[in-house]
Amino acid sequence: MAQPTREIHLAARPEGEPKPSDFRLVETELPGPGPGELLVRSTWMSVDPYMRGRMNDARSYVEPFRLDAPLEGGAIGEVLASGDERFSPGDVVRHFAGWREHAIVDAGSAEPVETLGAPQRYALGALGMPGLTAYTGLHLAELREGDVVFVSGAAGAVGSMAAQLAKLRGHTVIGSAGSPAKVALLRDELGLDAAFDYHGGRVADLLAAAAPDGIDVYFDNVGGEHLEAAIGAMRLRGRISMCGSIAGYNTPQPGPRNIGLSVGKRLTLRGFIVGDHADLQLPFVREVAPRINDGTIVVRETVVEGLEQAPQALIDMLRGANTGKMLVKLA
Ligand code: NDP
User: What is the pLDDT, as a whole number, of residue 253?
Assistant: First the structure.
């Protein structure tokens, strides 16, 4: 039987900041699942910064979104009908056919949701791709005892986890974020040693005030002026986990003018993509889920309701409207 549903399509490639007219809400019908497929009713959908890059007509590490086709992204949902013996109706799965209320999903790409007692939607945030990104970026930074760690975008999905995991490992942690309320969260709830609002002056000056003796590790979610400031503040043999550069996603930013300092300081700047580190998923969930369940790690989310709100959620997230993970509740 055909399944009526709604999808968000990419109507136009944005110039700079995305606009509502770059998206289109489309009503359609899906067939039942074929062999090896699942019909899934999505309940939660993730909104992520990398989606902005996929809206451009340029290949990065993933293909661009197609025009006049549904956008894609992480989601969780309930299996309504299954053409694969590994899944039954009622199972909850994580899949990549977000931006739609129902989807036909290749069973091979669907995963059972396992959050070890934490809410299932955390499989899209603190215990999902963003949390694993934080865990991976710290792992690759090869933290050493006594390291001072600076995290930008520290009130966001990845940053809030990176900052708290670094604190749990005993480090002095400094965070930056885009509002006084986010700074208060970092200091008062997440327990960071120092935090600043990057709108309050030159990032280099704000970082120097927060870390007068310099930093050893920088978890870079932002790029641009933040990256330049971090290179300036780095101590000898410092390490930078190059996670993202959101300051340039709508409008590309120049690279750091002081990159030459990385030679004399013997710095390591290491880019990574979380998808290359699936082997860390199990140790990550086993370590982090209990700390979420006992309240040691604070999870923040910003939730909007309804598929039709998803485009605005992406626009707002890129402007900093979210604290913690930006999610769309679909059902
Ligand atoms: P967030 O939850 O952090 O949301 C994005 C945040 O970026 C906003 O809330 C805003 O917070 C901040 N921001 C927006 N514009 C600027 C700007 N000009 N300068 C500084 N901050 C800005 O998103 P995620 O946690 O999902 O992603 C964080 C970063 O991690 C992104 O760069 C993303 O691309 C990257 N990433 C990389 C992965 C990888 O495999 N390497 C995987 C997943 C994410 P504020 O109010 O503080 O400005």
Answer: 87
Tell me the mean pLDDT in the region 148-155. Answer: 98
CA of 153 to the centre of ligand 1 (A): 6
Complete DSSP assignment for 28-47: EEEPPP-TTEEEEEEEEEE-
3-state DSSP call for residue 268? Answer: strand
User: Nearest 5°: CA angle at 174, between 172 and 180?
Assistant: 140
* Residue minimizing CA distance to atom 3 of ligand 1: 156
Domain ranges of the chain: 3-126+299-329, 129-275
Q: Specify the CATH number of the domain 129-275.
A: 3.40.50.720
CATH H-level superfamily of 3-126+299-329: Medium-chain alcohol dehydrogenases, catalytic domain (3.90.180.10)
For a pLDDT cut of 90, what percent of the chain falls above it? Answer: 96
pLDDT band at 314 (very low <50, low <70, confident <90, very high): very high
The CB of 72 under 6 Å from ligand 1? The reply is no
> Which residues pair with residue 78 across a beta bridge?
41, 92
Report how far residue 310's alpha carbon sits from residue 221's, in angstroms, rounded to the nearest whole number: 22
For residues 230-254, give the mean pLDDT. 96
Ligand 1 and 96: CB distance under 6 A: no
Burial class (CB within 10 angstroms; exposed 0-12, middle 13-18, buried 19+) of 238: buried
The predicted structure's pLDDT at residue 58: 87
pLDDT tens digit sequence for 17-68: 999 999 999 999 999 999 999 999 999 999 999 999 999 998 777 899 999 9
